[in-house]
Specification:
Helix content is about 15%, strand content about 35%. The chain is α+β, with helices and mostly antiparallel strands. The strands form three sheets. A seven-stranded mixed β-sheet has the order 1-14-15-2-3-5-4, with no helix packed on it. Strands 6-7-8-9-13-10 form a six-stranded mixed β-sheet. It is globular. The mean pLDDT is about 95.
Length: about 240
Amino acid sequence: MLCPPSSYSNGQCVDPLTIVQYNLYYTNPNLTPFLDYLEKNEIDLVVLQETAPWHGDRFMELIDKYPYQFGGTPGLGYPSGQMIISKQPLNLKAQNTPAGHYMISGVWQSSKHRPVSLYTAHPPSPRSEQLWHERNALIGSLERLSDYSPYADTLIIGDFNLSANTRRFIDAYQDYHTAPLQSWPREIKGLPIPSFSRIAIDHLWIRNTESPSLFICKREVLSQFSGSDHSAVVTYLSER
C-alpha cells in the first residue's frame, strides 16, 4: 500500500482549520449521524459530492452554524452533484468542461487575514474509455485553472475517482502536498469491504507560495457513517 489505511499525522496541530469531505451517495437514506457530527464538532469547511436535492434540504438544518453555502440554489442546483458549506465566507463559481462536468473555484475566507483559493471537482468514474478520458481531462483542466490562484494557499478537494496507487496520481498536482487515505469502497451492493482492500480516491491537495503557510498536520477516515460506499475524511490544516 502506498498510503496509510485510516490516518496520517505530520506534527502537532495548533489551532487548526478543519475540513470534512464526503461523497454522500445519491440514494443515501441516513444523513442524521453525519449531520449530528457536523453540529457537535467544530468543522470549518464541508465539501460534498453526490448530493441529491433532498440531501441539500437536510443541510439547511445547519444554516445557523454553517451560514455560507454553494450549491442548492435556484439556477445553480448541485454542479456535478457538489455542495459546499462553511462557517466562513465563500465566494465561488462553477465552470463546466466541454464534456459537461463542473469545476468549482473561488475564495474561502478561512480567517479575516487569510483567504484561501479553493478548487473542487468530482471527475467521473472511469467505467468506460470515454469516461476515462473525461476524468483525465477534468483533472488536467482543474490543474490549469488552479495555476491562476491569486493567494498564497491553494486547496484542491474532491472525490477524484483516481487511486493514489497509480502513476497518474503521482504525476498530478506535483507542486502540491497531499496525504491519501483509503476511503473507498466501504461496501459493494451492501456487502462490507475490509479496510485493507480499499483505495484512496477522496483527495485533498494543498500548495503554498509564501511563509507562514498552511500544511496538512493530520488526516483521518471517519468510518462511523453508513449509507455511502465512501467514508468521510477529515483534514486538519495548521500553520507553520
